[in-house]
Design brief:
A three-stranded antiparallel β-sheet has the order 1-2-3, with no helix packed on it. It contains no helices and three strands. It is mostly beta strands. The protein has a domain of 32 residues. The protein is elongated, with a radius of gyration of 20 Å. Strand 1 and strand 2 form a beta hairpin.
Length: 80
């Protein structure tokens, strides 16, 4: 017995449905997956659902000497 699978449609324009091309999409939950993050999306025009993927890229490290955000733990004991 063979199982029919639907072809995955891919589009490279954010905020646009890969099925109908509509821009009336609603964003749901997000999830981090290795070096990417995706958002669940639903198209209000055709009812299709899927995921919109983004690559994560290191930008920079920002620190202010002597300041610690509320609730931050100290890593002083971890240093040699």
């Amino acid at each position: 017995m063979s199982v029919a699978t639907k072809e995955e449609l891919v589009i490279t324009e954010e905020g646009k449905c890969a099925v109908c091309g509509g821009k009336n999409v609603q964003y749901g939950d997000s999830e981090v997956a290795e070096q990417s993050v995706y958002y669940e999306i639903d198209c209000d025009d055709c009812g299709a659902c899927g995921r919109e993927w983004y690559n994560l890229e290191y930008q920079d490290t920002r620190m202010v000497p002597g300041e610690k955000p509320a609730g931050a733990r100290s890593i002083e004991g971890d240093r040699e």
